[in-house]
Design goal:
single chain; alpha+beta; flat; disordered N terminus
């Protein structure tokens, strides 16, 4: 996947604090990539025999031609680990783009 360049607009700030309980009535936070895919993130809570189980839903919408779509249900720790990896890769990409890597 390629992008048209760095995103100049800040990411949405309407996400709940990390320690806030999931709000099932809350709309997912989302952003649209330069290639047109909408990525949505929402808290959800699954019930079950040992539950409730807090999860974070990550939904990567279809490509422009509608060919593919992906989603993942992450535990809070998995979501934090993914966030760390994304921030680490973003910093590295910016570093390399500035000619320092």
């Amino acid at each position: 996947m390629t992008t048209a360049g760095p995103q100049r607009e800040p990411l949405p700030r309407d996400t709940a604090p990390v320690d806030a309980p999931p709000d099932p009535g809350r709309a997912p936070a989302s952003l649209v990539t330069a290639c047109g895919r909408r990525i949505s993130v929402a808290a959800l809570c699954l019930g079950g025999a040992g539950g409730p189980f807090p999860r974070i839903a990550l939904d990567v919408g279809p490509e422009r031609d509608g060919a593919s779509r992906a989603w993942a249900g992450l535990s809070p720790q998995e979501a934090r680990s993914l966030a760390f990896l994304l921030l680490e890769q973003a910093a590295g990409a910016e570093h390399r783009a500035a000619g320092r890597g």
